[in-house]
Design brief:
With about 280 residues, the protein is mainly alpha-helical. Helix content is about 35%, strand content about 5%. A hairpin with a 4-residue loop joins strand 2 and strand 3.
């Protein structure tokens, strides 16, 4: 959404109007998550809307055929754009869906034997979306390497902590990506969670905390079970999954469902070493 200068001025002068606008947008986007659940009325409505948008913007039936997905709605990232389809209808643009057989001196030869002449070839092959730690080598308390630990697929409790790696908390870790809403809301929940842990640790700087292995295992089992009801796990290739087909990027529910789990740190989920944490009283409102 693009806000006008007048709206931005109002937000600055009256912050409560910004907060209300943000809540309205958040609630609207949250309602869209139902479209990514298997065989729901909301998913079918999403398909109808997407196909209607395609037909309205692409008059050529053959080009529409090439652009019509052959996989479940939501299995890949849902893109929202008003200018992508029109770009493909321009006279100087051709959509080629045949697989590439070879790069030849003249350009690109596709599997149908046709050579597409080109002076420049740009490789848009994606990125390493599942290398959560990048090139950073993270070594645990017993000498274990996080990269080795995640060899079969990254996982972390609430997407933030891994047993064997004390005092390590992540932002935007495994299974915390969204398809339907702003990732900023997930990051804010995670930041508040980590700050709460730090507040507990401040009085005893020598203490170390790590999530209990069984807590992480139970959490991940429940998460993957829930993922079975999501289009994210359906039969298509996507950057949400690892080579084995396990969804390791996306969260399985709404932001508010995540908040219900990660809205407050629970010390009982963690092992404490080095010193006992002080007991902190909490008051429920």
């Amino acid at each position: 959404m693009v806000f006008s200068a007048e709206q931005l001025d109002t937000f600055e002068e009256r912050p409560e109007t910004f907060e209300q606008s943000r809540r309205t947008l958040h609630d609207f986007r949250e309602s869209g998550f139902e479209r990514t659940r298997h065989d729901t009325d909301a998913q079918r409505a999403g398909v109808d809307q997407a196909l209607a948008h395609l037909e309205a913007q692409v008059p050529d039936p053959e080009l529409r055929r090439k652009l019509t997905p052959d996989y479940e709605f939501g299995c890949k990232r849902i893109l929202r754009s008003d200018d992508y389809y029109p770009a493909l209808t321009r006279g100087n643009v051709e959509l080629v869906t045949e697989g590439i057989e070879a790069i030849v001196p003249e350009g690109v030869r596709t599997r149908d034997g046709r050579v597409h002449e080109a002076d420049v070839i740009i490789y848009g092959t994606g990125f390493s979306s599942q290398a959560f730690q990048g090139d950073l080598q993270v070594i645990g308390a017993a000498g274990g390497n996080l990269q080795d630990r995640w060899a079969e697929g990254a996982e972390a409790y609430l997407g933030m902590s891994v047993d064997g790696f004390p005092n390590m908390f992540m932002i935007y870790g495994p299974n915390t990506n969204l398809n339907h809403n702003s990732i900023i809301t997930m990051l804010e929940i995670q930041q508040a969670y980590i700050l709460e842990v730090l507040e507990h640790l401040l009085p005893v700087p020598q203490a170390a905390v790590e999530v209990r292995g069984q807590v992480l295992a139970s959490y991940n089992t429940a998460l993957q079970d829930a993922m079975e009801g999501s289009a994210f796990s359906s039969d298509c290739s996507s950057w949400y999954k690892n080579a084995a087909g396990k969804v390791i990027n996306n969260w399985s529910g709404t932001v508010e469902e995540y908040r219900s789990l990660a809205g407050q740190w629970r010390p009982a989920d963690y092992l404490v070493s080095g010193a006992a944490l002080p007991v902190r009283e909490t008051t429920e409102v």
